[in-house]
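Prompt: I keep going back and forth on a fold encoding question. Comparing notes only helps if you start from a blank page. Show me how you would write down a chain together with its backbone fold. Please set it down just below, with no commentary around it:
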Amino acid sequence: MKLEGMLEMPTTWRCGRFLFDFTKRQYPIVMGILNATPDSFSDGGKFRTPQDAIAQAERMIANGVDLIDIGGESTRPGAEPVALQEELDRVLPVIEVLKHCGVALSIDTYKAETMRQALNAGVDCVNDVWALRQEGALDAVLENSQCGIVLMHMQRNPQTMQFDPEYQDVIADVSLFLQERAQVLMTVGIEANRIAIDPGFGFGKSLEHNLNILKNFAAFSKLGYPVLAGLSRKSMIGKITGKDTNERVASSVAAAIMAADRGARIVRVHDVPETVDALKLWGAIQT
């Protein structure tokens, strides 16, 4: 597969009210995961009430998070879809309280109406595992002229994605998909500097695929968009370390550093203080 139009590494990423300037940062944007759900793979149920979710967000802010990714529906392998109203009931109260918290907010959803209402409520970014392929999703982000957009690669869907995933060449296949999706957005008038891409660790990939993506992560930066690495506590780490989800902090931080070393501009993590400290040390020698 041939990739056309390799671009220069981006210097900025427009994310709603925020403009992240990579020329002035020593380390990647830290996106903290805030799951307002009962069934997420790592912290399901811990922050399912608005009060608990808000308290967790405040802890992340105190520890240096740049962007908080709020989700009301789990997309772990085998997860069942959540009704629209239930998702809205989970995320909108959290957004309402946090919209003036001083850091950027993201909505982790594939539903167009959730995107629309979350953007209207004050979030700065849409993070979509379906890369805006669901009905109405593209129209929802077109209604907002500045929101950041994260396009993720996923093979099949959350219910079937881990049933024997196959690729001719995982790096080329994923890169081509992400390039094509970004081009769709730009064709309808969305500026390139609003787009970030995510190769989708664990979303329709075997352990071998995931390790190949991490090893060759720098290849995705050649597409010309900020690249997000979402490795935190995922099953690939458990398969290598033999540790349960809550015992994967050290290895998740190590994975974030590996991704940063290979060009990641955004790291999506559960463990904000540990990751920020490690990235500060890593950043101190990036001269």
